[in-house]
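# nightly structure sweep
# worker-07 picked up a monomer target from the shared queue
# config: single-sequence mode, recycle default, output format = structure tokens
# input follows
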Amino acid sequence: MAKKKLAAIVKIQIPAGKATPAPPVGTALGPHGIQIMDFVKQYNAATESQAGTIIPVEISIFEDRTFTFILKTPPTPVLLRQKAGLEKASSTPGKTIVGSVTEADIEAVAKIKMPDLNTPDLAAAMQQVRGTARSMGLKVV
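# output follows
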């Protein structure tokens, strides 16, 4: 079988199990001519167990208008907000502390994010997550 030629890679963040053909999915995929409803059905089926979480997806679109997609781990701020029980982060990080997370929370988030981070070392991953927590106005205790 001949190798398919890649036409585009589209990256979007969609709530798990709740993708619809409306924006942002339709506006991101429409210009590439793929069947949007096919993507929506496959994405929702693949993410139904994680409902309510934002899941980034990387869609590879080929010249024959077929596609494949890879699910990524949820963004670090989303995971940290869940651990801290917050709706949103601080509007003035560095000045206003809006909540706190424990070292155990930092480690748990780092373990979840390991496949998508640029380090194989858990300690370095934890340091990246700590930095994100600080930039969100969270205190690490």
